[in-house]
Amino acid sequence: MARAALAKPAADVSQAISVGFSQRISRCRREGKWQEAVYLLAQMRRGKALPNDITCNMVISACAKGGHWQLAVDLLCQMPAVQVTPDLISYNSAINACEVASEWAAALACFKALEEKQLQPDIIVYGGVISACAKAGGLLLRHFWGNLSNHEPLGHVGSLAVGFWQLTLRIFEELCRRMSPDLVACNAALRAFKGNRWPVANAILQNFDDFGLQADVVTFSTAITSCVDAWPMTLQLLTEMHSAQIEANVWSFSSAMTCMSGAALSAWPTSLDLLRAMKSSQVEPNHFSLSSAISTGLSSWPRAVSLLPVKMSRVCYVSALASCASSMAWEAALACLTAMQNAQMTPGAVEVGTLAESFNRALGHKAARELLCSVSTSWKAGKKDAVPNFTAEEIIMQGPGLLMANKPESTSTEEFAAALAARLNCRLSVTSRLDHPTSGVLPLAFGTESSMEKWLVAQLAARLVEKEYLCLCEGEALGPPGTTGLVVAPIRTMELDGHTSRSEVSPTGRIARTEYQVLRRFSCRGAQWAEDTSEVMLLAAHPITGRTHQIRVHFAFLGRPLLGDLTYGRRDSLSVCPRLFLHCRRFSCIGPDGTPLVAEAPLPPELQNVLETL
Q: Which residue in 435, 497, 565, 593 is the catalytic one?
C-alpha cells in the first residue's frame, strides 16, 4: 500500500497540483482521515505531481494518529525510492506511531536508521524511543540489541530476559550526555522502573534540579510504582508531593497501596491511613486502591473483611474472598459471597470456586463438592445442558454439556477447539488448557450459555479437578519406582510478544505445587546427549495448581528437564525424543449430579516408541 502510494510519477511535474494535494493531505491529517491521506498521496502520480518531504511527513503523521504504525514505518522506508530524503520530522512521526502502539523494536529500528543517516536526534525522538521501551515491559531483548548496535549485549534478568528498564536507562543516559532531558522524557523513563527499581528511579529524581525541571503529579506517581520492595519510600514521596504543593490523586494513592500489598502485615495500618487520607483529600478510592488495601491484610482475613461495608467493585470482593480462602476462613469467605449478593452482584464461577477452595482446605473435598452442587442449581435454571452425540476420533467421552477430547501435540488448545467446533458445527468453550507441544485429555464445554462451563471453571478454582500427566525427564535418580515427591516453588510467567510466554521459578511468582511418582527408570549411560550420572525417568505428575508450563518449569528447576523440551530442556535430547514428552493421561472432575467424570487418553504412538527404544 505504501509502495503504491509513493510510486514515482512522470518527470513533468506541476507545482500547482503539488500544492493542492499538500493542502488536502494537511486537512486529512488534522481531521484524522489517514486512509484519505494515503489515497491522495497515491493519486499525486496521476496528477503529475511529485511528493516532497513535507507531503510525506504529513501522511506519516496521519497514519501515526490513526494508530497504523506499520504503514507509517513503511512510508518512511519508501521515501528514498522516490528521491525524497527523510528528515528529522519524518523519523519523529514514525517513532511516535511506534510509541503509541508500544512497538519498541520498530521504534529502536527507526532510531538506529536515523543515526545511520547522520541526523541528530532531538528531545522528541529520545522521548518517543524511551517511552516505547518503557511501555514494552519485560520482553526478551538480548538478541535484538546485540544486532542493533555495537554496545555489549545487556545482562539477563533471572537468567531469562533482559530487562527493558536497563535499555531505557541506557538510552536515557545517552540523552543526558547530549542534552538536558525534558519532563516528558524523565517521566517516560521512570515508567520503565515499575516494580522494584526504586534506587534507579530515585537517582533520576535526585537530578531534577540539575535538569532544571519541576516534578509534577505524574513524576511522583510513576516513581511510587517503583517502590514494591521499598514501600516506606512511598510515604516519603507522598510527603514530598505535599511539600511541593502537588495534590496526590487516586493514581498516587493507589500506586502506594499496591506497593504495600506485597509487603508484610506491618504495612496494613499504613494502608488504612492512606485510605483515610484519600477521604480527607476528597479523593474517591477506586477498586485498585481498595483491592490493594485488602491484599495488604491478606494474611489477616478479619482486616480484609472489615473493609466490606465500603462500597466496592467486584475486584475488591474477589480480593477479600482470596484473603479468606488463603487463611482457610470459610465462614468469612461465605460472608464475602453473601455481601456480593447483597450488593446486587451475581457471584461468578471463579468467586464460587474460591469459596469452595476455602471449604476444601478447611472442611475437605466432600464439603466443597456439596457447596458447588448447591450453588450450581442457579446455573442450571432455564435451558438444560444438552447431551452431545458427535462422532469424531478425537472425542473420548461425552456428557451433559461436556466433551472430553484427545488433543494432539503441535497445536494450541484454542486452535484445536476451534477446528473441532467447526467440524462438529457447534460452540465449544475452553476451560482448561494444554501447552502447544502437549497432548492428552482436554475438557470442552458444549453449547451456548452452558452451565457446564461455569461448573468446570468453579471446580478448577476450587482445586477439585485432578489431572495426571506422563512425562519423561532426564537427570539424577529421584528414587526407585513407586517413589513419590512434591515440588513447591513459586512460578512467575512473562509474556514475550503477546502470543508466547515463558515461566521461571521466582520468589516474586505465584505459589505452585506439583506432586509426582516415579513409574519407571531407564539407563542412558553412554548416550551423547546425557550426562554420565544421568538416567531417564518416566513420571506421573499431578499439578495441584495450574501455572503456565508448571510441570516443565518445576522439573527443569529440579535439574531434571523433560525430554524434547525446546524451551526449558536440552535440545540435544531431540535425538532420542522427537517432541516434548508430556501427555495428559487422565482428567477427573465431578459431574453436575455429584458423580465422578473420568477421561483417559492412551500414550501417543510416537511417545510409546520412545519408551520402547530406551
A: 435
